[in-house]
Amino acid sequence: MRIPLSRPMIGEEEKKAVLEVLESGQLAQGEQVASFEREFAEYIGTKEAVATSSGTAALFVALKALGVQPGDKVVTTPFTFVATASAILHCGGIPVFCDVDRQTCNLDPERLKATLERESGVKGVVVVHLYGTPCALEEILDITRSRGLFLLEDCAQAHGAMYRGRKVGSFGDAGVFSFYPTKNMTTGEGGMVTTNDSELAKRCRMLVNHGSRRRYYHEILGYNFRMTDIAAAIGRVQLRRLEEGNARRRAHASFYFRELSGIEGLELPFIPRDTLPAFHQYTVKVRERRDELLQFLRSWGVGCEVYYPVPLHRQAFLQSYGYGAFPVAESLSREVLSIPVHPGLSPGDLEEVARLVRAFFAK
Ligand SMILES: Cc1ncc(COP(=O)(O)O)c(C=O)c1O
Q: 242-362: what fold?
């Protein structure tokens, strides 16, 4: 695509950092990972951070460390990437879906209350700050705390997003991040668990590293979900540049809000009060002709995508669970379209995307 939907921002600093690790001979379990964990925890504002090999691995170990066991129910959104639910299933847990709010596309606190009244055996809740827009954390925390449930924040799309002046990933019992190349910062593949609970961090650290704290002494059954020092070295540079990238994303979003407002049939993203989104995506809603707009933009070389075309309760591999209908998630899957907002866009790119969108609706 001439104007891609995402592009990792890799510069000379990342290349230099990788070369230094390669030349050091310490490619894994070295100082880069430990430093990246410290720096990431400090950035998010948590006591601890545990690096992993992917966001999916981070979700899985966080859920395991939070005590999800076979048969436990965990409430989450059906309008997310598959990993949010598959991590629950890999623990032997049962994802219980709860419909989302149409404006924010995030878990709806009122519906969450109703779901918890209906379901028994629920152990916790996983919220997703979809597209980088923070969830209604205060309302959701009230609900989970008063019922003794854990809250896990899936921040895979929300590095640096703020809720009431604090970074997401510091509100729940734990937060998880992904560093996949399309994300606001990348390590190639990689992930992180953030938490203020030192015991929880200790369990995550053990799960990531074969259940051991001391080499060849295995206290619990674990995995190899470690991040490499090559990845961590990239991550440390990316973290230093994250705020600058997010500021550019926000400036690009402001441009679209200005240039695309007032178009009949086009609904712009909703920014909830007290939030500073990370604009991982700039996602519009188009009630009619969404797929036509997608084809039109792509035909002009503009990358765009539907996140997500099939809500999780409609996915083939989950059909045996007999989920009911989640009408908001279903209608959103027919309406949403993400257009380029990444930091690498030029003023000319932004002008062109806006011009094409306007031209489409003028037809
Ligand atoms: C909401 C959400 N959760 C989890 C993940 C999984 O992260 P990863 O691809 O790093 O395993 C992703 C991204 O891919 C995501 O968007």
A: Aspartate Aminotransferase, domain 1 (3.90.1150)
